Predict the structure.
Amino acid sequence: MESSPRNLAGRLGSARDRTFVGRHRELSRFRAALNGEPGSAVVLYVHGPGGVGKSTLLRRFETEARDEGRLVVKVDGRFIDPSPLGFEAEAAKSASAEEGVLLIDAFEHCQGLEGWLRERFLPGLPEHTVVVVAGRRPPSTEWSCDLAWSDALEVLPLGPLDDGSAAALLERRGVPSSVHDAVLAFAGGHPLALSLAASVAVADTASANNWEPRPDVIATLLSTLVGELPSRTHRLALETAAHVLTTTEGLLAAVLGEEEAGPMFAWLRGLPFSEYGRHGLFLHDLVREILDRDFRWRDPQGYERMHVRTGHYLLERVRTAPRVEMMNAVRALTYLKRYGPMAPYFQTMEREGDVYDEVLRPEDHETVLRMAAETEGERSVRAVRAWLEDQPESFLMYRSARTGEPVAFMAWLRLTRRCAALDADPVAAAAWEHAERTDPLRPGEHALVSRFMVHPEAYGQVSTVGHLMQLRICADWIRSSGLAWSFIVSPDAGLWRPLMDHLGHQQIFQAPWSGGRTFTAFACDWRVTPLDIWFDRTQPGGLSEPSAPLGAGPTGERPLARADFDAAVRDALRNLHQPDALRANPLTSCRVVAAHAESSGTDPAEALQRVLTDTVNLLTDDPRAVKSHRAVATTYLRRAATQEAAAERLGLPYSTYRRHLSQGLERLCGMLWQRETSALPGTATETGPARAG
């Protein structure tokens, strides 16, 4: 469609041209580059804070370049797959034009590609290509340290508009001159704040002569704008766009209905803080944050309805997207988790592009073995070697976008039968035996095991590389046909247990390993918890945790397996004084706890706390268990800071204390298991400790 004043795009472009002010230095440097003037740079690096006008400036650059007959290629860092292949797919046309212009916006979202861009991609472009990179962060010092770039690169820090330009913007936006001083004092030269203030000042003619904004800059303006929206439908459309990574007509239809989606999408496109790229429409970061917080505070029920509807739409996108779009689809779905109780695992994942994944190459086998040796020791090397021989296609290598060198690997195993590699890997073997003992695979089914997630620089911790691994795992949970079991093995159960519980994966065993390390396995039986049920309770990024764990009815119709039960007891003891954590514990749905809650009129967390405390005290009924009772009570009921502190408080050597504690936990679990299962016909009453695989 041609861009002219006769269509919407042309009309929007004309309006933007009329309100464009200032930036004379930046325009001059771009024109010099465009004309190939002596001494001009071929790469302009524009950087500045959010809302300072980087995207507006790039739109002006685009207009001027097109007026000169140049081919313009635009890449938006927010919506590309942040890998070399993903970037090249978006920017491919710039490599074919002798005098093209490549505009890269929102580069901070794929900042990890900076080294690769400088050293590999840009040098391969035609000689007369002009490149503009715009992002929030300044370029790394490696550009200036490389003498080859000294004449080719010019850095343009973008700050607030000067007073004259800011006043000109208000004038062109039709703001009454009587309030210019007040608006300028309020917004300074920040272009986004000026634009929002101008919208309010023009509309609010009743107070034009005494316009006095409240102290908080953007929140007050947005609140006023939201209050003057044409209808409730317009409000919900805007709030939906603020909530998701990108907005499309299809997503709006899922929230607003088919008839409203088209008109509302067109309306959103015309807003002053709205942009759009290949994957849809998006709002400025500051605008979306304030809108989302306001909606959540003002209408919690409506907010959750919108949240769930967008989640279901995005789930379907993950299910049906072509494989090349799969990671972008699951990234958009996972973005919703930043609004729920699992936000700490996801809110820091803004920067991507440093690393990308690909199927393991044969020449990388020794690198994988070296990484395993460095992080987990020779015992893991033997297990990794066995899996490399059995199913090398299940390994993913994570590479530096800059150098292509390996930085991490994941073994995402697919099991359909007992195989020889299990003999070399007792942890994976224990997971397989758990499935066989609890609910074996049926014909056509398989189990997925995340056995190794090895990133030496951030081993076992929250990281961008770990997030990429999680996206891959989540995509396979959703898209796999015939998935019966999934297992996640972690070297740091304390860090990851809340997320695993949230995702319906319950702890099944812990396996001591060499080097003093302990691996913890978490499992989900997908036949007990079908995808739709799992998704409703977890994957949209639920705003609060479910009151009952996945796979268990409110009255415990399906009792936990013994290993799961014992793990839940230990977890509840560790969180005995944290009600929120207790509410998410599987024991809250067990019969013994449910019965106590009903008889006492207390909530499940308080009932579980009381049942555990009473049962610990019952250990004293057996004279042989007095020492065990003291160890358990001191550790959990009296809240010793560490086990070492508990041993000191009891006046015991640490090894003796650990023996008493282990015996006490075994007795406690056995007593609770006997109470839980005594009323269930056909259930074996096992009083000894559960076998960990």
